[in-house]
Amino acid sequence: MDPFDSDSMKLIGSMKDGKGVPLSAPHVISLLQFFHCSPSRPGARIAKLLLESELVYAGQGYCVALGLIGGKSCQDHLREYLKKYLPIRGRYYDQHWAIGALAHIQGAPPEEFLDSTLWEEINTSNLPLPAIQRFDRLINYLQQHRMIA
């Protein structure tokens, strides 16, 4: 079975813990670390699932995975997602996770997505700069606890 086929990724995205709570991004990342990415198109299948936005909470893990894989290809995938789902216009998906992942890869907030008009209607904790800071804290936590290298 191809670990990146649509059914496999949907399964990972829909998994729940023993109490019925959806797996958190770190859990999804751990599962994704068992798989390897094509060197020619890193993150392409994960990005495809992110763009489809079919599963609740799965997009968080997809964004974190893309942020950890890094590189130009993942930056392009995250930009494509943000261009598709910004401005918000009632579509509350994983834009705040995507901008955090993109900033993590770039090493700086992506200026083209910081315009406040793109983020109207959204909770203040999910605005770009707080979302980027939260993403950085998550990555730091995962590194400190040796969940990622």
Task: Give a quick set of tags describing it.
about 150 residues; disordered N terminus
Q: H/E order of the elements? A: HHHHHHH
- Give the biggest beta sheet: none
Q: What would you call the structural class? A: mainly alpha
What share of the residues lie within helices? 55-70%
Distance linking N and C termini: 27 Å
Number of helices: 7
**Which range does the strand content fall in?**
under 5%
Care to count the β-strands? Answer: 0
Any idea what the shape is? Answer: globular
What's the Cα radius of gyration? Answer: 15 Å
Uncertain runs are 1-5, 34-39
Could you walk me through the main structural features you see in this protein, from its secondary elements to its overall organization?
This protein has 7 helices and no strands. It has helices at 6-14, 25-32, 44-52, 58-69, 71-85, 95-106, 128-144. The model is unreliable at 1-5 and 34-39 (pLDDT under 50). The protein has one domain. The protein is globular. With 149 residues, the chain is mainly α.
Concise account of the structure shown:
This protein is an all-alpha fold. It has helices at 6-14, 25-32, 44-52, 58-69, 71-85, 95-106, 128-144. The chain starts with 5 loop residues before the first helix and ends in a 5-residue tail after the last helix.
Describe the SSE topology.
Elements (H helix, E strand, L loop, with lengths): L5 H9 L10 H8 L11 H9 L5 H12 L1 H15 L9 H12 L21 H17 L5
